[in-house]
Every structure is written in structure tokens, then in C-alpha cells.
Amino acid sequence: MAYKILVLRGDGIGPEVVGEALQVLKLVVRDAPVDLEFKDAPIGGHALDQFGTSLPETTLALAKDSDAILMGAVGGPKWDNPQASDRPERGLLALRKELGLFANLRPVKSVKELLAASPLKPEIVNGVDLVVIRELTGGIYYGKPSEQRQGPGGREAVDTCLYTEAEIERVLRYGFELAQTRRKRLTSVDKANVMSSSRLWREVATRLSAEFKDVHFENQLVDSMAMHLIRRPRDFDVIVAENMFGDILTDEASVLVGSMGLLPSASLGEEVNSAGFRIGLYEPIHGSAPDIAGRDEANPLAAILSAAMLLEHSLGMRAEAEQIQAAVEAVIRDGHRTRDLGGAGPRAVGCKAMGRLVRDHLENLMQAE
Length: 369
Ligand code: IPM
Ligand code: MG
What we know:
This protein is of the alpha/beta class. It is built from 12 helices and 12 strands. It binds 3-isopropylmalic acid and magnesium ion.
């Protein structure tokens, strides 16, 4: 079988971390009966510089023609002009929308050897194993109007949070089905005490919960959820939230495992690829970190784990995905740390060295088979 993988390295540390993830992907399929065909395309800030748009038509066309997409990160201070009509982030948002990737999975699992990397007490974070499903193609990220304008009392700005019942239902349904394969708990997050869109969200979630009687269900308001997430994170299994609440809660959740540099994500839609699985966009949840770009300091593990999610969710290669995860865990167990994980002085490991360590472990695992 041959699968088409589109590679969007992006800006900042994107190219560095994706470079390591790609080498891991190539290695893990070495002995498998599949051929991965990689193609590169521009997105984000450097696409803006070179082609005058953050999402060139050719990139979008290649994305639509791929079985899966591996991305780094976009953005940077160079493109931060608030008056600009196009921004690196717009390219990413347009790509998610155009591909219909409504369910963004962000797993958060604590690693015993890294408990000290979290500012929270080890007894709170030990054993955390949850997944946030963030709705990704609706809500305040896409609602219209969204603009600055001249109002009666001077300049004003507006954003719109809009959800259709169907959009809410499909992402929650995905969440309930996922919960059935896990610890059978689902927490739906909203702000139903203030927002209309959240009241519809809560109504749909509660109605749907009757279809999934085997799943323990609860509604939580987003503000108290932010508190429960760091007070008693072990109590959660599947958390489903609208676009912006999910964006905020997952940055918070990264503190549970010690670093954003560890958290991968998968964005899935309804469309199925040539492998018979969902087409997906796989990216770390971290940003482009322009302050450390090009210095070989970034943590490639989130990108490497995103590649593992790609194998599992878009290509159905679960065994290979688990081998990558095992290799990452082994490297951490051996005490190797990038700077974000507290690696300091001569013991700190750079991006390239971390990638190499993961591949070395992977080779051993593959040979032991
Ligand atoms: C994320 C990021 C993006 C988002 C930015 C870069 C547009 O924060 O993927 O979490 O807000 O979705
Ligand atoms: Mg974010």
C-alpha cells in the first residue's frame, strides 16, 4: 500500500520538530508493507512571505489529495501586525475548516518520570490519563461578523460565537463513542449560565447522553472546569469542549504533564482516506516558539507523538504507533531532557539529539520483534 502524507513544516521551530518526527516515521515503517510518499508544502508566515497568502491554493489542493497531514506550527512576531489582512494563523484555521476537521483530540497522560517537571504536586498529577476533544471548525473562531468597525461611540470590535445543533451533536457523539472505548466518563464543558450557544450545547449534550447509558456523563461550566482540571485531573476521562474553551483548557492541561513540548494532537473529520480511516491533520499543541527557533533547543517529542497518532488514526497502524510511544517513554525513563523539561547545563539534550535517541530506542524495539 502507498499512502500520501503531506508535510507542512511551518514557521519557527516547526521545521526542526517535524524533521525529527519524519525520520521517526520513516524508520518505524521500514519493515512494514507500506510505502509513505511525503510531499512538502508551505503554510503560515513563510507562505505569506513567498506567495502572499498564508494558505496557498496548491497547499490546500495537496492537503485534499492526501491520506494524512503532518504539521509543525505557524506564526511569529514578524507577522504580528494587527492591521494585516492575512496572518499565519489564518492559514491553519482555513485548512482545518476546508478539510472539515471538526474533532481535535488532545490526549494528556502523565509520565511517572516527569512528575517533577510539573509545578503541581506529584500526588495530584500521578496517573492522569484524559483526552480533550476540542470542537475545531465552529464557534467564535469562525462566526461572522468578526471585525473592527466604526461605532456610534468610536471604534468597536465584534466576534460571533455560532454553533448549529448538528455541529454540536457530531463532536459530542464522537466523544461519547471514544468514552465507550476508554473509562466511560464524559464531561461536557460550556458556559450555559451566560451564553446562548452554550445553552444549546448543554441541551444537545444532555439529550445525547441518554443514548449512551454506559457512559457516566456530566456537564461542567468552563470556569470551574479550569479549576477542577488542576485540582483533581485524575477524575476526568473524555472532556468535550467548544473551540475556544478547548484551546484554553488544553494549554492548561499541558501543565499536568510538565510541558507543552510533550502534547500531540489529531484533528479528524468525517472523510475517509484510501486506507479506510479518517483523513487527519496531526500537529503538536505547542506554537512556533520563535524565541528558540533555529537553536536546536526545541522538544521534538510532541511532533514525534503526533506522527504516532497519524499512524494510528489515519493509517490504522496501531502497533507502529505504540512502538513510537514506547521509544519516547524509554528515552524519558533514561533521564534525557530537553530544556522545557528541566534539562539544564551539559545534560540538556537538543532537538536533534532527542530525535536520534528516540530512533535508537525504536531500532532496538524493532529488532527485538
Ligand atoms: C492551537 C493554537 C491555534 C489555535 C492558533 C495557532 C491559531 O493555539 O492549535 O491550539 O488557537 O487553534
Ligand atoms: Mg492553542
